[in-house]
Amino acid sequence: MDLIGYRGKSSTESASGGCPRQPRIIDNATDDYDLALVKRIRAQEEDWEMAFEQLVMKYQHSVLNTIYRYIGNYNEAEDIAQNVFIKVWHKIKTFKKKAKFSTWLYRIVVNQCLDYQRKKKKEGTVSLDDKLSEEKIPESLTVELDSEQKKKSAIIKQAINELPANQRIALILSKYENKSYQEIADIMGISLGAVAALISRAKESLKTKLIPLREKGII
């Protein structure tokens, strides 16, 4: 999936049309790495487009996976992920250093997911989960599952998808993206207590739905 393609020619392609230049990759494990890239982009320093490309390379899979888990449709998740990085491209000068870049990025992800859901509700579109068996899924989420495991996974996923939007987002960020409660609070713009309450209610709701199925041996 090329999330840079909307800019036309890749920034790794030389201006003379010669051999592609490879982005300079450095240790990307720290917040300082993100801030250094953002600084280069905002100041439009030399190779600033490469800096943006490196941010995309670092986050594109986790962003896509989060969106896919929320909406359950790979093709539309790709489109939303593309929109996320377009917004990052246009809004990066509004990023404030007091926040982590990943927090700022995931606020955009969450808002795009909620916008998608509002649009679908307005259109009267039913859940897309029925199409999952026909859709490809992100490679990073693909594992070898037998038919029984697939059935269980589908039931659990459906139960998650039936949660209220805020509960679903909080649970996905916590369970699948390993975000701390503080990070989720910052991303969603709510208090720590509200995050804890959302995740607690989500887990309780899932337990209520899934325990009877487990007792019947369905999952």
TrEMBL record:
Keywords: DNA-binding, Sigma factor, Transcription, Transcription regulation. SUPFAM superfamilies: Sigma2 domain of RNA polymerase sigma factors, Sigma3 and sigma4 domains of RNA polymerase sigma factors. Residues 55-122 form the RNA polymerase sigma-70 region domain. GO terms for biological process: DNA-templated transcription initiation. It comes from the Bacteria. Residues 155-206 form the RNA polymerase sigma factor 70 region 4 type domain. Gene3D superfamilies: 1.10.1740.10, Winged helix-like DNA-binding domain superfamily/Winged helix DNA-binding domain (1.10.10.10). Residues 1-21 are annotated as: Disordered. Pfam families: Sigma70_r2, Sigma70_r4_2. GO terms for molecular function: DNA binding; sigma factor activity. Belongs to the sigma-70 factor family. ECF subfamily. This is RNA polymerase sigma factor.
